[in-house]
Amino acid sequence: LRFSIVGPPGGTATTVTVAEIENQIRVLNSIFVPRVGMYFYLDTFDIFQSSSWASMCNTDPCYVSEDCGFYTTILPKVSQNPVEVVNIVVCDLPYLGEAQWAWATEEDDVRQYIQLGLNALPNRDSIARGKTLVHEMGHYMGLLHTFERTDQCDADGDYVSDTAPSSKAASRVA
């Protein structure tokens, strides 16, 4: 995993430590190792201090146009080898996280990423206790929400038979 922390100089995002990231990876591994035998480790940890970058972290404009700052400025600079490394960008965000769907871009595209809000890290008083990355990693690997439905299939939910479809998103984190 490559963690890139983006925030303004002196901002709270730039105070993230390697120990916090290692704790986040422990949470991720506590779910993935016993269930699927997949182990994650820290490849790279960098802090990028830039007020202009911090202002581009919210990806809402990217849903309107791919010509948004997060895609055109931040990801090309922070993403490395997306074929072999999961690039995770941590910013101070108004949401906990998001991930690019596995099929949304080519595997070697810098837009293969996971984004975490600073408050999603386990040591930052998040209600998610570090499990947002677990959730987003599932999306990164192609899992849908159980309440989603697309025109790709006639079945309800996430198209996995061992999970029942639900009508809406849950409002709390387990």
Question: Can you summarize this structure?
Answer:
The protein contains 4 helices and 5 strands, in the order E-H-E-H-H-E-E-E-H.
Please characterize this protein's 3D structure.
The protein is α/β, with parallel strands linked by helices. Helix content is 25%, strand content 14%.
Cα radius of gyration in angstroms? 16 Å
Strand content: 5-15%
Averaged pLDDT: 87
Low-confidence stretches: none
**Shape estimate:** globular
The number of helical segments is 4
Spatial order of strands in the largest sheet: 2-1-3-5-4
User: Class by helix and strand content?
Assistant: alpha/beta
Give the secondary structure arrangement, pairings included.
Layout: E1 2-7, H1 18-36, E2 44-49, H2 51-55, H3 69-78, E3 87-91, E4 97-99, E5 113-117, H4 132-140
Parallel strand pairs: 1-2, 1-3, 3-5
Antiparallel strand pairs: 4-5
List its salient traits.
174 residues, 5 strands, single chain
